[in-house]
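Entry 14. Ran structure prediction on the chain below.
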Amino acid sequence: MSEKEMVQAVPAQVAAAQMGLSERLIRELIRSPKFKSSLRIMINAIDPSHAPGMVRALLWEDVETFMGTTSVLPRLANFTIQAVRELAVQLNAFPPEILLAFMSRLAREVDFEAAGEAFRELTVLLEKLRPVIEELRETSKEALGGGPPGNSAAGKGSKG
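Output, structure tokens:
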């Protein structure tokens, strides 16, 4: 391996080790009753009404720092995609009655009016980002099944 290849490989190895460390840390923390209690308190204190102000402060207090920090969004998106996929796999293992009861309870707590407003704002943003989206669509066709909408890999072979 050349020096250049070694230099490029090190960050990937460090990142992999850190993710392994993160997973081990989460496993240990989740076994701690004190951590679980603190987590419940923190989660129950989340106030959605503070989110808009937080976003404005993060964005406009120091735009350069915000833009630099948002460069992690692709990795965060990929992490979230993998996490959601695994969550779906794990939830699919639950008996349907338990899963339906749990999810219906969660759904009753969702602010669908705010979700509608968020979707409308995202629609405006996505229209502005159309050139980037078209580029992403082209580069991701193979991964997402290729072809026009409705012809995804998930839809292939399914019976309707």
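The two ends are 52 Å apart (CA to CA). Will compare against last week's run tomorrow.
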